[in-house]
Amino acid sequence: MPQESHLERERRGKIARWRAEGREPFPWSFPDRTLIREVRALTSSLAPGEEVAGRTVRVAGRLLTIRSHGGTSFIDLEDASGTLQLLLTVHELGEAFYTSWLADLDPGDIVGAIGLPAVSRRGEPSLRIQSLELLAKAIAPPPEKFHGLQDPEERIRRRYLDLMSSAESRERFRLRSLLTREIRGYFDRAGFLEVETPILLRVAGGAAAAPFVTRSRYLDSELQLRISIELSLKQLLIGGLERVYEIGRCFRNEDLDSTHSPEFTMLELYWAYADYHDMRRLMEGLFERLGTRMLEWQPDSEAARSAAQLFRPPFATLDFVQALEERSGIRDLLSRPTPELGELARRCGATVPADSPPGVFLDKLFEHYVEPTIDRPTFVVDHPASTTPLAKRHRSLPGRVERFEIHYRGFEIGNCYTELNDPDEQERRFQEQLTARGEERYAYDAEFVEALRHGMPPATGIGFGIERIVMALTGAKSIKDVILFPQVRSR
RNA sequence: GGGCCCGUAGCUCAGGCCGGCAGAGCAGGCGGCUCUUAACCGCAAGGUCAGGGGUUCAAAUCCCCUCGGGCCCGCCA
């Protein structure tokens, strides 16, 4: 931590003075607290200059500012429910208490206050103070009272400073929690069972991403941190749990950017005897509900208003191949040889290895020609089979799989398939992934293929990033704004 | 990993192009002020200009390297 500043020496001096007078600067509790929001409500019917007679309340929170006018002083106090002005007069408190309290308190201190709810002469809801108590001295000073903490690096490294100085930041993380709970409730009501499956695996599969690798001292073997939840959850379908989901951390050994973080929270859900059409309806219902709830929580938020307005079923649909052919002017995409697709992808700026499987090039072309044109919630459907080794082939479109992605605000927030459940075809698709390029894309998971051989009911499954949903609904521009402690380099 | 930009007091920021005493506001100290709310007024204090090296009589400023961050690209359901 930084060297102690003169501010901190000053504050330590105040602690010493506090102790010398027999007062404890870090007491144990502050019982019978009333929330600031409730105190403000008590003052709502008062006229300026009035107070609630004979009704003493106790509030506690962080001291924000002190405005001292000689014989009268004002302190702004903040708890999780709001802010409240404390009103102190030398007349009511007496010379000794008044001066010592003002001298020994600083912005950032945690303070308990006892007084009468009142409204100041200028109309501000207040607490007319009878007694104050220091509950925890802040030795280090808080961020600047008006501008707060601006440095994006410090806001992440010392998130507590960001939170204490930014109600907006606190609100964004509160919304993340509310949204997660809402998602849970929606799937619970639909009859899905929440489960927990391993994070430490011998083979991390189910997605094309590099895993973090660690080691077990007891098994004397390498373990990988999961990159998706897919293969574990499908084994539960084989076991007879017909509707399951998990919300949990996944890890991918990659760089961060505005929509990716090496550790992030995934929601995956699998549904036996249903297909991707059923999943579309389930998702439309979920997003409609999230939009409605956001508007209840945040009636003034632009992002919430547009979500509530746009998340109305049925969402727009774009056929992957048809949309790409239309917007790029390239015909017969699926019958073109792989090297030609590679050349087309390179021509629109993609830098991908020339020996990649065709699906990689098609994804790049789609990103270039179609994705930027998607501005409202849209299902992109029926991808070329080569893009997706874990999805079931399309029942009527050759060369395609039954899949949809939900796009909104320029990025993908969810990905669904009718699941591949033919073990022999699954094995073939895994093999193709291995041979298509020198390095592995989807890891070959022999235990998963073995499980499939015991029969997995026809099913649909979806995965989406909780952070992406929170971003979409709160209007956050970076994934770091919706993760409390994003990865940072040590310094 | 590549390109561009940024790092000055505890916090928010000037100064940098054109080298010449290190600046302001908030917070803190001292003094004043009995209804303010980014309170106000006066005085004094506060610096490893991210770190290291170089050019120069002289470097926060110009050059090089390192560290950290931001944006874009790459990697990436």
Report what the structure shows.
The chain is an alpha+beta fold. It has two domains: 6-142, OB fold (Dihydrolipoamide Acetyltransferase, E2P) (Beta Barrel); 164-315 and 376-482, 2-Layer Sandwich (BirA Bifunctional Protein, domain 2). Helix content is 35%, strand content 23%. It has helices at 6-20, 36-42, 90-93, 95-104, 152-157, 159-165, 167-189, 230-238, 276-297, 302-310, 320-328, 338-347, 358-369, 423-436, 446-452, 466-474, and strands at residues 57-68, 72-79, 82-89, 110-119, 125-136, 193-194, 200-201, 213-216, 221-225, 243-251, 263-272, 316-319, 378-381, 403-408, 411-418, 459-465. The strands form three sheets. The chain has an eight-stranded mixed β-sheet, sandwiched between helices. The radius of gyration is 29 Å and the shape is elongated. The mean pLDDT is 91. The protein binds one RNA strand of 77 nucleotides through helix 1, strand 1, strand 2, strand 3 and helix 5.
Mean pLDDT score: 91
**Coarse morphology:** elongated
Fourth-level CATH superfamily of the largest domain: Bira Bifunctional Protein, Domain 2
For the largest beta-sheet, the strand count, sense and barrel status come to: 8 strands, mixed
Corresponding CATH architecture of the largest domain:
2-Layer Sandwich
